[in-house]
Amino acid sequence: MIILAIILFVVLVSILWQRWELGKFEVTHYAVPSAKIKSPVSVAVISDLHGFSYGEQNHRLLEETAKINPKAIFIPGDLLVSKYPRTYASALETLAKLVKIAPVYYSYGNHESRLREEECVNHELFGQYMRDVRALGVTVMGTETRSISLGENQVMLSALELELDYYEKGSIAPMEASYMQGHLPLVEPEKFQVLLAHNPAYAEHYARWGADVTFCGHNHGGLVRIPGIGSLVSPQWTLFPKYDAGKFEISGRSVIVSRGLGTHTFHVRVFNRAELLAVEFQPKRQQA
């Protein structure tokens, strides 16, 4: 009986601790220096929100986003959960307030891409959601590039929507070396290039393509992280994903992977707090 009581106590404490942990997030700051940047400028990155709300009407997330004083808010996918329409309303409500802080650029994650398939049960609901999103003034990006202003800086912003085959469970599908150039040709490589690409498994492809900085999500930090080792498993059920969370330097370019702000299916975070990213692009002098 004593052993059973101890087990029940440990389970109860774990459940309560997880409920507490899932209600918190932190702001993670990164600097990205580049000779292509004229003056310092900040952006916010919100990834994998999955319909979560931090406080009534998401006021805590909105307040922290406003504190960053961003010139743009980048969303590299999965603002909702495809099978739960209630998360569409929550995402829309949050977007309605984010656009009042700064211009919002929203690209597709695997949850949005799944809903774009006509055979998906919530396809029509998603269509209405996207019409409402655009009506708010949110810039929705598929696989495309556009020039945007960030303070005094004119930068190129690209987004990549991967086919759903690249999200199959249990393995990472290989990507052809020419995939990026075939789907997303560089437009003005002399300008600072930002890429929104949900799946970080292909980080090396993004860097070789020419993105000065790529923002990814998808892995949710690996759900459970072991200090000094990293994450255990990705949402695709691959063990110890290489690009799980944090800033990676590849061939002189940056790939920043967010731990995300929400969860779905498995609502667990261990040593893996949710995060909002505050990123400053900084001028960097070229060496003589």
The CATH architecture classification is 4-Layer Sandwich
Q: Order of strands in the sheet with the most strands?
A: 1-14-2-3-4-5
What is the arithmetic mean of pLDDT? 91
Mind telling me the C-alpha Rg?
A: 19 Å
Q: Give the beta-strand count.
A: 14
Q: What structural class do you assign from the helix and strand content? A: alpha/beta
Report, as a whole number of angstroms, the end-to-end distance: 75 Å
What is the CATH level 1 assignment?
A: Alpha Beta
Strand content: 25-35%
Q: Quick one: CATH superfamily?
A: Metallo-dependent phosphatases
Q: The biggest beta sheet, please? A: 6 strands, mixed
Number of helices: 7
H/E series, N to C?
HEEHEHEHHEEEHEHEEEEEE
Shape: globular
> Which stretches are low in confidence, meaning pLDDT under 50 for 5 or more residues running?
none
- How much helical structure, as a percent, in the residues? 25-40%
Number of domains: 1
